[in-house]
Amino acid sequence: MLSSAALAQAPKGTSNPTGSRLIVMAGGGIREENVRSVVSLSGVREVHVRLTRLAHGGEVPTRRALHIRKSLPEDEATWEETDEQRVSAICRETQRVGR
User: Which of the four, 38, 49, 55, 90, has the lowest number of CB atoms within 10 Å?
Assistant: First the structure.
């Protein structure tokens, strides 16, 4: 996205794909328990959430020095995956805003 000043100095043919619309999105710490109040009090229409759970796999890799993901529990066979129940819960809560 380009500011109006940057767009004025941009090469001919450059456009601002968002036009004059700017969307503010709430994020950071948004959970099922607080999303309704965040949306109600702030007036935002969009939120960014990370609704995951830890999943545990089978064998732990033998090469302990090789990490294939960010730091989580010591168990290298653990990863984060989307939690469908949490996604459903946050959707329900956001649909209740304004009722």
Answer: 55
What's the first-to-final CA gap in the chain, in angstroms?
34
Bridge partners, 82 (sequence order):
52
Question: What is the average pLDDT value for the chain, to the nearest integer?
Answer: 77
Does the residue 2 lie in any domain?
Answer: no
Domain that holds residue 83: 21-95
**Are 28 and 54 within 8 A, CB to CB?**
no
Number of domains in the chain: 1
Structure tokens given for 3: 């500011």
pTM tops 0.70, yes or no: no
